[in-house]
Structures are given as C-alpha cells and as structure tokens.
Amino acid sequence: MRRRAIRGVASCALVLAPLFGCALQEYTPAPIDPGASATQIEGRSPNDPALRDYMARQGQPPGEWPLRRWSLSDLTLAAFYFQPELSVARAQAAVARAEVDAATQRPPFGLIPRVSHHSRVREDEPGPWSLGLALEVPIVPASRREALRERYDALADAAALRVGDVGWKVRSALRTSFLDVYSSRARLALLEQDAHARREMAALLERRLRAGVESSVALTTARLRLAEVEGEVQAATVASERSLGALAQATGIPLARVRELAFDFTVFESVLPAPDSTETQRTALLNRIDLRAKLLDYAAADAAVKLEIARQNPTVLFTPGYLWDQGDNVWTLAALVLLPSAGNRPAIQAAHARRDLAAAEVNQLQSRVITDADAGRSRYRSASEAAARVATALALSEERTTRARAQFDAGYIDRVELVGARLEHLAAERNTLALRTESQAALGALEDALQAPLLGGPLPQLASERTPADAKPGDLARR
C-alpha cells in the first residue's frame, strides 16, 4: 500500500513538472582577457576593410580606399564604428529590453511536499507515515501584468533612445576635437610665417642700424616681438599635438594611426545662415533625444500608477493537493487570498508623487531645451556676423598687401615697409581665423542644442541590436 502511495505521489509530481518551465540551462563561463582586448584596441586601423564596408552600409561608400583625406563625416563614421561607449550603451539597452520579459513573466508555481509521522498507529493501518504533495498556483489579474509590461516597455524604449544620445555625444566630441585640429594647425602655420617675417624684419633693421639710419629702439622692439612670436609658435605646436590626442580619443583610433591621416577641413570654411528662432525651437523639441527619453520615463511612471492601482485587487493562491494518509487517498483544494495593506493607498500615493515628479522633469527639460536652442542660435548669429565682418577686413588687407608689393616692385617703398605690410596682413589672418573658429564652435554648440547636424553630413543609424556578422566593437547596424 505504501509503495502504491509513493508511486502515486511521484506520478503526480511528474505530471505537474511541465508546469514549472522548460529545461534548465547550464552556466557558460565568459572570461575576459585584458591582454587580448588591449591588443585588439592597439590594432585598430582607419584602413580596416570592415570599416569601409560599414561606411557603405551607412550610405556613404568611400570613393577610394584607403581614404587620402578624412572629412568630418568620414571621421564620424569611424568614431561610430570604433568607440566603445556605443557598445556599452547598446548593452545597457539590451539589458533593459531583457528585463521586460524577466519582470513580466508569470509568477512561479510552488510544489510543496508533505510528509507526516503519526505517533499512534492502529493495527489495521499500514504504517505511521502520511505522504502528500500540494501545488501552489498564483492567480495574477491581467490588469496588473499589463501595467507591469507597459512600465518596463517604456523603460526599455528609453534605454534604446539613450543609445542615440550617446551617439550624439560621440559625434559632438569628435567635431570639437576636429575643429581644434583645424584651428591649431592653421594658427601654427600663420605663426610660423609671422616668425619668419619678423626674423627678416629684425635683420633689415639691424642693417639699418649699422648704416646709421635706424635707432636701436626699433631693433630691440622687433627682437622682443620676435621672441614673443617664437614662444607662441612653441605653444601652438604643443596645442596642435594635444588636439591630435583628443581626436584619437574621440575616434577610438590609436594616436599613431591618427598622426598618419590627412584631413579635409572644408566643412569649417562653409558659412551657414542662422536659422529662424521658431524653426530652431521646433527642431530642438523634435530632435532632442534626452527629451524623448524623458517622455518615456514619464510613461513608465504613469504605468507604475496603473500597476499600484491594479494591486488593490487581492492576490489569490490556489493550492490543490494530494495526501496519502495511512491508506486513505485525500484530495484537497484550498485558496489563499492576500489582501494589500490599507488598500494599497500608500503605494498608490507614492506612485502618483513619482509621476508628478516625472511630469515636472519633462517641463523643466522642455524649458531648458528651448533656452539652449535660443542661446545657441543667438551665439552663432553673433559669431557668424563677426566672422563675416572680419572676412571683409581681411579682403581689404589683401588689397593693401598687393599694393605694397606693386609699390615695392616700382621702387616707391623699401623692403622694411613691404615686410611690415606682410606682418599686418598675417595679424589680420590670425584674427580672421580666431573669429572663424569661434563661429564654428558656436555652430557646434547650436547643433548640440538641436541634436541635429547642420553641417558635416547625416548621422549613421543607431540600433540596440547587432547581427552576428556585424558583431564587432563599435559597429552600428541600421535600425
């Protein structure tokens, strides 16, 4: 009799086992080899054929490979391909998406074995043991599961949007460092020309002094200014090298490889008219990824309110069971009803407060987005107008330099006056470069405020998932 009971309990357990899920998974170790990772990073190359294929998939196939000159759009694609920040953001989005199923899966069933021992056993009973098995089945209202899924879906969508936000920050850092490379190289070239002209001027004044037609004060002043310019040349050399390091960091390409690249800076020579104020605000409100993500955060908070309201309903646990009690087959059916404390009002009030906070944060961010867009537009308009004015002054300086050259060739002025005119023109060129750089920096700030590229080509498409064939660090597949 006892054996039949044990077999009955075992058969019942086998019948119920499929209710508890699929086959168990085994742990697979995934160790990290820091040495191999370092070797992979050091081996990154802008001439990698996989980068060329990635650029083609993004709709910007290179006309030649390797590229002879790298533009802002080319470097943006390289940064999106190599930068590890995007891999981290994509992995975070994958975690958020995986948590949706983990949080909304059906509550686990409970299997409760029951074994009892009786101290008194009658002669007609087979033994002192009672064996049984109970099943605990939780019943969760559909409204609660729907609200829970809605909340985690919104959080996962927000995490996916933040991949794009990280991508924009990568592009912004790249543009800033690329502009620094452009301005530092151009300023270094102008300073070297200035130093060369001042050496020539000092030599001319020294000859005049020996001839008795020039004072020592003018020569001393020229030598002091030459020393200042030579110091500026050294500082500009350091700044140029530092800008290359920043560009290497922004692209994710080793510095040694970046030093070998030739660049195309034509994007910084373009003049873009300042957009209209209304258009600027509209573009910012439509494009800002952080604002769209904040709206999804609010949706998650609103779903949390639905969830807490759904939790007002009691949770029911059905517990059917079987017991072999000393020869007697006993079938049971019970239910456990869990009532939320205080009607779940405290949790509902807390969820309402969090939703109000999320709404206030959305309004705060909207106000900041509009303010940033207006401030960026105003700064760019002022800087671009100043750059246009100084460009006109530079054109006049070029005319004066041309006239001075003609006068020198005709014998109306000497070489000291010709070199002086050249120095004035170099000063005008440096001033023009400074204001052009400020104008481009202001344009970059406006792009950051809008999170939209106004110059430099479209952004690559971002996605939180990759196909196995594209599974390389920094690779971004199309959505």
Quick summary of this structure?
With 479 residues, the chain is α+β, with helices and mostly antiparallel strands. The protein is built from 12 helices and 4 strands.
Written description of the protein model:
The structure is a single chain. With 479 residues, the chain is an alpha+beta fold. It has a single domain (2-11, 57-120, 128-448), classed as Up-down Bundle (Outer membrane efflux proteins (OEP)). The protein contains twelve helices and four strands. Helix 6 (142-211) packs antiparallel against helix 10 (289-310). It has a four-stranded antiparallel beta sheet, with helices on one face. A hairpin with a 2-residue loop joins strand 3 (315-325) and strand 4.
Detail the topology: elements first, then pairings.
Blueprint: H1 2-16, H2 34-42, H3 49-57, H4 72-82, H5 84-104, E1 110-117, E2 129-139, H6 142-211, H7 216-251, H8 255-259, H9 277-287, H10 289-310, E3 315-325, E4 328-338, H11 345-410, H12 415-450
Antiparallel strand pairs: 1-2, 2-3, 3-4
Helix pairs in contact: 4-6, 5-6, 6-7, 6-10, 6-12, 9-11, 10-11, 11-12
